[in-house]
Amino acid sequence: VQLVESGGGLVQAGDSLRLSCAASGGTFSINAMGWYRQAPGKQRELVATIRSGGGSTNYADSVKGRFTISSEYAKNTMYLQMNSLKPEDTAVYYCDAEVRELVSGGRYFTFHYWGQGTQVTVSS
Asked: How far is 65 from 121, CA to CA, in rounded Å?
């Protein structure tokens, strides 16, 4: 399974961006997806997650009220709408997916996959 992020860029404080993450390859179903970010010199941190089925979501306190995570699991795609961006939101944003994947022998196993990351830079 491959995850491909898109939508990053350079914006000014107060602007908005929408990130996308598309999963493809193999035979799989998605249990949950999430966005993480890593700023220079800092550890990777959770931004938001969304589960399939009921679509329950979880957000980091730092982004609540500004970011919205959503998904179109029928298209194996997830989004992150980021509003009121701040300079401290500057980071590489990574997509993560927990999937049930069909492997050889006809069995399903659960795996985690990461995307390659997309840079978000917010200038003051």
From this structure: 20
Condensed to tens digits (0 to 9), the pLDDT of residues 12-42 reads 999 999 999 999 998 899 999 999 999 999 9
Residue carrying the six token digits 């049930």: 100
Element at 88 (helix H, strand E): none
Check pLDDT > 80 for residue 98: yes
CA dist 80 and 19 (Å) reads: 5
Question: How many DSSP H helices and E strands does the chain contain?
Answer: 0, 11
Contact 95, 35 (CB under 8 A): yes
Closest by Cα among 111, 115, 87 to 99: 111
